[in-house]
């Protein structure tokens, strides 16, 4: 059965879901990994806006890929975009492609500026890719976020970023 599933970033109050319940969403999630886990083929992910979902433009290609992997469509309430309709799908694909092209240009310029080498910038990662994969597996098996944070010696925020997987790259 097709479901309308809402996602809103940062709304922790059950009474404030950004209007997603009023938009017909049966369920509303505040964590991306949990939301993705409940999306099925033919479902529609509903967000009030890309900003309310916590997505910057550079995340659109990863969002689109995740939805395609689950066979789900996206509906943005403001401005109205519905990827189940041809025009909405084209608009979203165009935005995602433009962002991906801009990132490729920026990366090429960055590498040229460093003499072809990639220098690490920012803080070192607390978890390896393997540890992040383990955390996703353990969370899917029912482990709690606080328990995972204690086990890996990191904050709950770090665990939540690991649960986002590739979506967390580029977070500031």
Commentary on this structure:
- The protein has 172 residues and is of the alpha/beta class.
- The protein has two domains: 4-88, Resolvase, N-terminal catalytic domain (Rossmann fold, 3-Layer(aba) Sandwich), CATH 3.40.50; 129-164.
- It is 44% helix and 10% strand.
- It is built from six helices and five strands.
- Helix 5 (145-152) packs across helix 6.
- The N and C termini lie far apart (38 Å).
What number of structural domains do the residues give? 2
Overall morphology? globular
Strand segment tally? 5
Largest sheet: 5 strands, mixed
Largest sheet: spatial strand order: 2-1-3-4-5
Mean pLDDT: 81
Strand content: 5-15%
Topology record:
Blueprint: E1 4-7, E2 27-29, H1 32-38, E3 44-47, H2 60-70, E4 73-76, E5 81-82, H3 86-113, H4 129-140, H5 145-152, H6 156-164
Parallel strand pairs: 1-2, 1-3, 3-4
Antiparallel strand pairs: 4-5
Helix pairs in contact: 5-6
What distinguishing features does this structure have?
single chain; 172 residues; alpha/beta; Rossmann fold; 2 domains; five-stranded mixed β-sheet; 5 strands
Brief account:
The protein has 172 residues and is α/β, with parallel strands linked by helices. It is built from 6 helices and 5 strands.
